[in-house]
Amino acid sequence: MKRLFRLLLILGLAAGTWSCADDGTPSVSINGGTDFLSLDHLARSGKITVNAPAPWSVTLAPENYGQDEKPDWLTLSAEEGPAGYSEIDVTFAENPGPARSASLLFSCDGKTLAFTVSQSAGGTGFDAPDYYFYISVGTMPTLYSGLHLLSHDKPSYVSYERASTFDAAEFPDRAFVYPVADPTGHATNEELRAMSEAMKRRILEINAEDPTAVFGLWVDDLRCRLGYDWFVAQGIDSARVKVTMLSDGTATYNNFHNYFGDAATAEQNWNDYAAEVEALDWNHGGRYPETRAPEEFASYTWPYYLSTRPDYRLMLQNSSLMESSCPFIADRLAAMKMESVQPYELLTALPEASKQQFYRMAKFDYARFAGLFDLSPKKNIIIIGTSHSSAASEQQQAAYVERIIQQYGSDYDIFFKPHPADSSSAGYPDRFEGLTLLPGQMPFEIFVWALLDKIDMIGGYPSTTFISVPLDKVGFLFAADADGLVRPLNILFRDAANVEWIQ
Fold first, then answer.
1. What's the whole-number average pLDDT of the chain?
2. Model confidence at 291, in pLDDT bands (50, 70, 90)?
């Protein structure tokens, strides 16, 4: 059954402001209309503002959140105040242990309001989240997200712009997938905007239900500002938000080179982008910020500096592909939290039942393709094709295929993966004896990751696919040398002694 994201309202006492009285008198407002104060484990003080139409009082509510006595780690500078504006200084004792929270009950003019103060635990890592949010646009980060989602059992909230990447009906029941009108296409800007608001509301709902919850956000590195916009800007302590920025593929490496590859401008660019990030209020956020348009999710220049901040990391296929000739940037690279994790490593680590679920999510028929590789005792080679703008290009591809068959056909079964836009290869099985034509539209990355143990060699036209393939599997490329390849393939293959260059 297809699971849809439920949009719920926070009910009961958990509200930061009362509505106007029947006679229209002003309402009371706590902390500008919020119902909580969330601080990190190092905090020793905080502030709560009160704007009330009448005298007010506040008491600690020990029965909340499983506490059976008044918390002794929190002290209020005032427990009552006059009508108008007041401030309460909150003092915290040192927190060497787990996260903690306390509920305050404000009374004013015969009404009661609950307000929660929480303090996160120290030393929590990227595996600590109680709830996960997965937001992606590109195919590669969407696949990363799907693989990680199947590695744990936590409630998860999912949105992927390229709706055809996964079948939402095949996600586990604990995953709430935000719906799109066209599951075979892309989410519209209106759907992305509505999704963003729904996710922000759900984050506040979770915070009201579980004020010490730790959140995990897996997001495209190009949209990394959502870690601030959705959480910190709504008042969630940044130490409770563990952000994994996922490589969008070649853009991650190319952007880094464009911003920081030139020693003359690299340091200034880094400092400029760092200043943009540090200009944000990382302590208390903006409190219900103005809604952003989908195109404003983009934050291409931020992920590199953000990866030096606490609770942010950059997950990519190969961190050694990040290079700069600037000594300052070399030092920054050492400070960045980068994790080189290949998607096929995530897939291999899953239990068999979760692997099969991933294949169903991705609409990949593992048994069918595995059977193709097992039809003969020969080893298996895959040739990657390209798109064409001329008959000469089509003829050149055919000539490459013929050469590979002549060179390897006696010892290998040959499989050809055409580019989705290539129709010239449709007749290859009749033209080249022993060649098997793979579907052009299938999710090729998943094909390679799932069947790595059956693929003995892969090669062909330079492709971003090679970024997520073990280098020792690549046997040939249709190019003159590594220097002529686009970044980051030029770096990836410059010392690859086992690659045969064919042109």
1. 89
2. very low
Question: What's CA 459's distance to the chain center, in Å?
Answer: 30
Tens digits of per-residue pLDDT, 371-422? Answer: 999 999 999 999 999 999 999 999 999 999 999 999 999 999 999 999 989 9
Nearest CA among 114, 105, 100 for reference residue 67: 100
> What three-state secondary structure class fits 503?
coil
Total count of residues recorded for the chain: 503
- Enter the pTM of the model: 0.87
Query: 75 near 91, Cβ under 8 Å?
Result: yes
Phi-psi group of 110: left, alpha or beta (phi > 0 → left; psi -120 to 50 → alpha; rest → beta): left
Structure tokens at 439: 């579907």
CA dist 321 and 4 (Å) reads 39
Residue 117 has phi, psi (to 5 degrees) of -110, 130
pLDDT in tens, 198-209: 999 999 999 999
Cis before 488? omega within 30: yes
The CA dihedral of 438, 443, 445, 446, to the nearest 10 degrees, is -100
Both tokens of 262, joined, read 């030139």
Q: What share of the chain is helix, strand, coil (3-state, %, to 5)?
A: 35, 25, 40
The Cα angle at residue 363 between residues 154 and 145, in degrees rounded to 5 = 35
Question: Cβ atoms within 10 A of the Cβ of 162, count?
Answer: 15
* DSSP for 343-385, written as a single string: HHHHHHHS-HHHHHHHHHHTT--HHHHHHHHTSSSSEEEEEE-
Mean pLDDT of 482-493: 94
DSSP conformation letters of 295-354: GGG--TTSHHHHTTSTTEEEEES-GGG---S-HHHHHHHHHS-EEE--HHHHHHHS-HHH
* Paired residues of 313 in beta bridges: 244
Distance CA 301, CA 488 (A): 18
Q: What's the one-letter identity of residue 10?
A: I
- Give the model's pLDDT for residue 298: 87
Q: Which residues of 73-94 are buried (b: 16+ CB within 10 A; e: fewer)?
A: ebeeeeeebebeebebebebee
Please give the single-letter amino acid code of residue 110. Answer: G
Q: What is the DSSP letter of 302?
A: S
Alpha carbon distance 216, 240 (integer Å): 8
